[in-house]
Amino acid sequence: MTEVKKRRRGATTISSKNQITIPAEALRNAGLEAGDRVVAHADGAGRVILEREHDVIAEFAGALTGTYDTDELDDLRSEWD
């Protein structure tokens, strides 16, 4: 019988390309899912923190709705030519 690798639950290995697989349970508990963009921060020796990337454009998109009259921006843009 082949020897089964001894692993701790939730443990992973860093590949030669500096990639890891994050256990699904850890992602679920953090509220992260496939497709989310994250930023990595070192927090001392042996500790890396992943945070969901803050999307500034999505936060402010549509914030100025109703500020300008219809066609007002088109008139301003026509002045650029």
List the helices and strands and how they pair.
Blueprint: H1 24-30, E1 38-42, E2 48-52, H2 56-60, H3 72-78
Antiparallel strand pairs: 1-2
Characterise this structure.
With 81 residues, the chain is of the alpha+beta class. 23% of the residues lie in helices and 12% in strands. It has 3 helices and 2 strands, in the order αββαα. The protein has helices at 24-30, 56-60, 72-78, and strands at residues 38-42, 48-52. A two-stranded antiparallel ribbon has the order 1-2. The N and C termini lie far apart (78 Å).
Features:
81 residues; alpha+beta; two-stranded antiparallel ribbon; 2 strands; 12% strand; elongated
Mean pLDDT: 86
Overall morphology: elongated
User: Care to count the β-strands?
Assistant: 2
Question: Strand count, sense and closure of the main sheet?
Answer: 2 strands, antiparallel
Strand order of the largest sheet: 1-2
Residue share in β-strands? 5-15%
Poorly predicted residue ranges: none
The percent range for helix content is: 10-25%
* Oligomeric composition of the shown chains: single chain
**Secondary-structure element string:** HEEHH
Structure class:
alpha+beta
Radius of gyration: 23 Å
Can you describe this structure in just a few lines?
The protein is built from 3 helices and 2 strands.
